[in-house]
Structure to design on (131 residues):
């Protein structure tokens, strides 16, 4: 067998092997893509849980940037007990407000309530816009 024929045979063999490799990758990736498409569809079809009031209250412009919680309680949707109870504080612009506590005391839960990732389950909270 001549060198040119041997090189052509090896090139064709490599192309065939690579084709089978790509075909096997497609069979692995296709089910993953299908599951991902279903999950994306579920997220896009989810109805929002947080509903804004039809007639929101107007606040004084002197309170701009103020966050106030009065006797706030919060419970995660699948939980039996409140994570936060009787929480009251006011954070004013230009002042430092710190939340100190041990692991699991609810600091992160409190912070996610401010941008309304969840709505509180009791009490009152309001913020008067960002500075």
């Amino acid at each position: 067998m001549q060198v040119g024929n041997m090189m052509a045979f090896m090139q064709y063999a490599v192309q065939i092997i690579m084709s089978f490799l790509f075909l096997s990758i497609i069979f692995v990736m296709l089910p993953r893509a299908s599951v991902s498409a279903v999950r994306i569809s579920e997220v896009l079809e989810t109805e929002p849980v947080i509903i804004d009031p039809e007639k929101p209250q107007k606040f004084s412009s002197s309170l701009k940037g103020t966050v106030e919680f009065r006797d706030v309680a919060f419970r995660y949707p699948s939980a039996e007990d409140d994570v936060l109870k009787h929480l009251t504080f006011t954070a004013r612009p230009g002042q430092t407000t710190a939340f100190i506590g041990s692991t699991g005391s609810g600091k992160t839960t409190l912070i996610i309530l401010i941008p309304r990732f969840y709505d509180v389950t009791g009490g009152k909270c309001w913020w008067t816009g960002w500075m």
Observations:
- Helices lie at 3-45, 107-113.
- The chain has two helices and three strands.
- The beta strands are 67-74, 84-91, 122-127.
- The chain has a mean pLDDT of 87.
